[in-house]
Amino acid sequence: MGCCTGRCTLIFLCALQLLAALERQVFDFLGYQWAPILANFLHIIIVILGLFGTIQYRPRYIVVYAIWTAIWVTWNIFIICFYLEVGGLSKDSELLTFNISRHQSWWSENGPGCVRKEASMSGIKGLDGHSYISVIGCALEYRYIEVMHSSFQILIALVGFVYACYVVSVFTEEEDSFDFIGGFDPFPLYHVNEKPTNLLFKQTYLPA
């Protein structure tokens, strides 16, 4: 196949997914979001597998990638519902941190235009040495930033799924046609080497 084909497009989509996943992984690490960190790590591995399968003409690897994209879309839909608080979910819960810590998204304090202020609470009994952190002036609420991240992931995953199915079908057709013309059989059954027989026949009529 040429360069401007579904295969090259899928390679580009996998590379784009890798960059997007790595960017998201960095900010999830900064926010101690353990569930998204694990999901991103698995996503990176599967995308690399799909990229390898596309480059090396391995349809089975691309099938695994296609199945994973469907799971990845479902995961990102859950993330969107989580931050938009759909179906009883709460963005302030500790679900994404496995109830290990009370951290939130890194964007909640470092979003565009956000100003982080700390106020001492030494005057309040039982809270000496602690500080209250307030964030003001955010141009965009952090949950919408997370929703945009997940929406972009869903978009490229859906396009990747379509191209993965197309590339698998093309690879399968090429393998079937190659088998049909005997491409994988270097010594066909109907091929007979007649040279030894001719030599024996000539030796029979040699003069005494």
Question: Can you walk me through this structure?
Answer:
The chain is mainly alpha-helical. The protein has a domain of 145 residues. 60% of the residues lie in helices and 6% in strands. It is built from 6 helices and 2 strands. Strands 1-2 form a two-stranded antiparallel sheet.
Task: Describe the protein's topology.
Blueprint: H1 6-30, H2 34-55, H3 59-83, H4 107-110, E1 115-120, E2 131-136, H5 142-180, H6 195-204
Antiparallel strand pairs: 1-2
Average predicted confidence as pLDDT: 82
What is the ordering of alpha helices and beta strands?
HHHHEEHH
Which regions have little confidence, pLDDT < 50, spanning 5+ residues? 180-195
Query: What is the C-alpha radius of gyration, as a whole number of Å?
Result: 30 Å
β-strand amount = 5-15%
N→C terminal distance: 63 Å
Helix content: 55-70%
Instruction: Please summarize the sheet with the most strands.
Output: 2 strands, antiparallel
Summed up:
Keywords: Cell membrane, Membrane, Signal, Transmembrane, Transmembrane helix. The chain is built from 6 helices and 2 strands, in the order ααααββαα.
Notable traits:
mainly alpha, 2 strands, 60% helix, single chain, 208 residues
